[in-house]
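Good morning,

Attaching, inline, the backbone tokens for the sequence recovery test we're adding to the shared suite. The designed sequence is right after.
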């Protein structure tokens, strides 16, 4: 089931109260740098930094107190530039280790760290703020941690950056341990305080009695702002009962009115008491506090969340399941009707906040945001992304229509299997037809959901009307439901999808030029930054990258392939030439000078070569010089995305496009490296270079053995290399040895690495990506065993798969590409039919602007980007390839096999 992140927005609609002028009043020069404002500069690389925690209602006063102290001490410091950033910090949106770090101070010495901490603690003894979980507490809002001031920054083999400390204790990563751990080998001016903190009360622990008498059994939902526990109420031995214990960490989620997460729990208790016996909700015990944190015990409701079902279209469900879902939705409408009749609005109706009992009855959960109609108190600003109405997001007064929108979003998810954010991204005018096609819904049902999702709240039905319509649908003859998704796998149906996709291809190319996130300075395509904890709706979390996976070269690659297929649009040549010049200049980007196919220069080289091959860039001596450099990157990692397997694929592909056999020499050294590094049992172990990955053996296509075998199989077939062929067979045997049968039909699955229970089912990790390898093995050897493994791997998903991620890497586009490849290699139309069904979904989720450009919300549910493996470029490539089967899968190889595919598909 798709997980939907809570859209915290604790501060409500953003207004951005700046803190900069408060500091400037004290004669200090302030340099705003994005989310931070910086004062001064420290020459120290590392030391005992100080943090001051705060809440929005006190932050301005706190700064006015501490700024003159810091000015007198002549120390450098930084602070959150405005209350929007402070809210993001305190709700954990910038990462759990950043909570509470409103001000960071960089003392000039360890001695000053101690004396300044004592002065700041005395001056701020009346202030409040969230706990800084990485630090040693020195006062009410003053904390310290040993770490980098301006440390050296290094990049690991996957391109992730990390800070490095180099001091008397040696060279090591700057880790932010939770809870605080005193560093070894360095002087600690706060050694006496460490022992005090170790004696302080600890967080709630399972297996222990807690508060007034609750035995904690397990953590249901960990969260730095407040976890949720399953507990036993042991207060009365005669009435022991399971309870859900909600935690609210002090001062987290603080708003401009001074209300924090604890205020939300107290508010929730009031709502439970007001609604008890009138609305189906859990019963609530008293609110209590332990160590300043708040707790609310609630009745544990046996059952399942309404969203805990496999996402799929309504029409593919058996009739009994259809009726069951309609009955649940009708019961939910009745619960909403009762809630609204009691003059309350829920305001967070989401998949995890509706519990269905075994008897089919529905219980509303999580009333933290519930609001009494007519109340003068401002509602708490929060909600679940994708389920909040436009007016709730805008901070307008609460009303019942907001719950109806959420109800519609929930119905859209449950009846189509698609994240409502993707559904709502498309134009509203075609909503009924869109929902009908995505879910195979009867017109009345599609119309009901569309009305609930209307932008104009006055057009939405009441809960009573929605319930009546659901009961009418439930009573209708099930045979009247058009089972759109049960179409037959016929050439006519496939051709119809191809024709529809083909008519959109010019709009797809146009969309990549104008309907995606672009850099204002260069006009180039922005990509989401890797490893960033911050909310993706912030534009600052997107940056220029050069790689093919995420970055400029991936977009060049896609547009060049559109040109090859005869699909072009105005300005494409100029845009690609400009982008290529930028790539050749090696502008500073996070991924510059990496060697890989997906992440690095091998992929950049392939993209530029594709553009040259298709006449978008003139070939010259510059290209030979660049390719010679780009395809000779270091060989120190084996995989497809970052290492030798992908570098080898890039060299072969560039040679094919330019008809230059000399480039094969670059692939030869990749093959030799992989042969030399293969394990005795046929696998490959990742070398040093990435903490958490080195020493492990992965199975999938992106980082594992499957990607390596793919390249070696192609190399062996082209160059009659017996050693490479033997290594590929051994790798294939190793993969088959770790396959798991998951269905009576023979479907296969693989864990991400041996011994793990987690199963992925996408291009990067899991059966579909591994199927690519066995298709390549069958294509190059004609061993029918490999074809059978590929077929069973392709059964990892149901025929009418629904998933909210549309990307190539771990979503529907990548799966569709693999089905197209299976149809080509195996000559079996069933796989082309599966690809066409995915294409039908993509075509229903398009957003077309007034200029005719098409885009999607692909992996990122907030902004449309053009990336090949994570963005619109990947969806566009899939639809292009469905119409032009002569193209290879993205960043892979066109067949050089001398044998024709088995079967009739061409």
């Amino acid at each position: 089931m798709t997980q939907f992140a809570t859209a915290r927005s604790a501060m409500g609609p953003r207004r951005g109260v700046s803190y900069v002028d408060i500091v400037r009043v004290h004669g200090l020069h302030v340099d705003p740098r994005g989310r931070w404002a910086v004062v001064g500069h420290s020459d120290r690389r590392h030391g005992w930094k100080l943090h001051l925690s705060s809440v929005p209602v006190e932050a301005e006063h706190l700064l006015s107190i501490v700024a003159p102290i810091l000015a007198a001490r002549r120390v450098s410091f930084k602070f959150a530039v405005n209350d929007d950033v402070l809210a993001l910090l305190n709700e954990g949106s910038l990462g759990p280790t950043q909570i509470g770090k409103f001000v960071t101070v960089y003392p000039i010495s360890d001695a000053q760290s101690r004396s300044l901490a004592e002065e700041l603690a005395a001056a701020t003894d009346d202030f409040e703020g969230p706990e800084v979980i990485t630090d040693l507490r020195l006062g009410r809002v003053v904390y310290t941690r040993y770490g980098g001031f301006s440390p050296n920054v290094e990049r690991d083999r996957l391109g992730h950056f990390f800070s490095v400390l180099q001091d008397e204790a040696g060279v090591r990563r700057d880790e932010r341990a939770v809870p605080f751990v005193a560093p070894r080998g360095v002087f600690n001016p706060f050694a006496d305080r460490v022992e005090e903190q170790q004696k302080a009360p600890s967080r709630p622990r399972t297996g222990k009695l807690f508060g007034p008498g609750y035995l904690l059994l397990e953590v249901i939902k960990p969260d730095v702002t407040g976890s949720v526990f399953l507990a036993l109420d042991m207060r009365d031995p005669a009435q022991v009962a399971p309870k859900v214990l909600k935690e609210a960490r002090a001062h987290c989620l603080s708003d401009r009115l001074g209300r924090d997460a604890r205020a939300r729990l107290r508010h929730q208790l009031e709502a439970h008491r007001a609604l008890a016996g009138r609305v189906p909700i859990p019963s609530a015990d008293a609110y209590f506090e332990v160590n300043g944190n708040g707790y609310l015990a609630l009745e544990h409701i046996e059952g399942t969340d309404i969203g805990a079902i496999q996402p799929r279209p309504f029409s593919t469900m058996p009739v009994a399941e259809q009726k069951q879902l309609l009955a649940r939705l009708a019961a939910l409408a009745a619960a909403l009707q009762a809630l609204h009749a009691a003059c309350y609005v829920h305001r967070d109706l989401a998949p995890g906040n509706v519990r269905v009992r075994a008897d089919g009855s529905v219980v509303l959960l999580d009333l933290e945001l519930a609001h009494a109609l007519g109340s003068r108190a401002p509602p708490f600003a929060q909600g679940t992304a994708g389920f909040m109405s436009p007016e709730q997001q805008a901070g307008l007064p609460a009303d019942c229509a907001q719950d109806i929108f959420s109800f519609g979003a929930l119905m859209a998810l449950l009846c189509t299997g698609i994240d409502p954010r993707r559904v709502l991204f498309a134009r509203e005018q075609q909503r009924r037809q869109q929902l009908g096609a995505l879910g195979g819904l009867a017109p009345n049902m599609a119309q009901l959901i569309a009305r609930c999702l209307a932008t104009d709240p006055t057009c939405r039905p009441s809960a009573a009307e929605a319930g009546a319509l659901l009961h009418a649908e439930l009573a209708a003859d099930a045979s009247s439901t058009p089972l759109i998704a049960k179409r037959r796998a016929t050439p006519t149906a496939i051709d119809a999808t191809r024709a529809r996709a083909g008519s959109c291809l010019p709009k797809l190319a146009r969309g990549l030029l104008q309907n995606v996130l672009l850099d204002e300075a260069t006009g180039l395509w922005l990509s989401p930054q890797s490893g960033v904890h911050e909310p993706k709706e912030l534009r600052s979390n997107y940056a220029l990258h050069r790689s093919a996976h995420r970055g400029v070269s991936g977009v060049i690659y896609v547009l060049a392939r559109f040109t090859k297929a005869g699909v072009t649009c105005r300005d494409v040549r100029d845009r690609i030439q400009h982008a290529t010049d930028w790539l050749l200049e090696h502008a500073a980007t996070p991924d510059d000078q990496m060697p890989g196919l997906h992440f690095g220069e091998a992929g950049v080289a392939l993209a530029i070569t594709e553009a040259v091959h298709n006449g978008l860039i003139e070939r010259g001596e510059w290209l030979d010089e660049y390719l010679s450099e780009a395809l000779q990157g270091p060989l120190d990692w084996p995989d497809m995305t970052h290492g030798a397997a992908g570098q080898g694929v890039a060299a072969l592909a560039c040679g094919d496009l330019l008809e230059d056999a000399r480039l094969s020499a670059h692939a030869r050294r990749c093959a030799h490296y992989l042969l030399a590094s293969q394990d005795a049992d046929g696998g490959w172990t990742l070398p040093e270079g990435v903490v958490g990955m080195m020493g492990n053996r992965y199975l999938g296509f992106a980082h594992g053995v499957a990607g390596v075998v793919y390249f070696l199989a192609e190399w062996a077939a082209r160059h009659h290399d017996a050693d490479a062929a033997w290594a590929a067979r051994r790798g294939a045997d190793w993969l088959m040895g770790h396959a798991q049968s998951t269905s009576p039909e023979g479907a296969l699955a693989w864990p991400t690495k041996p011994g793990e229970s987690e199963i992925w089912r996408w291009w990067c990790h899991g059966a579909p990506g591994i199927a690519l390898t066995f298709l390549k093995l069958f294509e190059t050897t004609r061993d029918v065993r490999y074809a059978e493994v590929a077929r069973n791997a392709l059964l990892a998903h149901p025929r009418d798969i629904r998933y909210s991620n549309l990307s190539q890497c771990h979503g529907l586009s990548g799966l569709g590409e693999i089905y197209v490849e299976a149809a080509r290699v195996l000559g079996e139309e069933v796989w082309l039919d599966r690809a066409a069904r995915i294409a039908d979904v993509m075509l229903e989720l398009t957003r077309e602007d007034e200029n005719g450009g098409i885009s999607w919300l692909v992996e990122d549910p907030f902004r449309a980007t053009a990336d090949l493996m994570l963005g619109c470029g990947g969806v566009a490539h899939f639809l292009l390839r469905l119409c032009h089967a002569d193209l290879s899968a993205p960043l892979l190889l066109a067949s050089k096999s001398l044998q024709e595919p088995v079967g009739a598909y061409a």
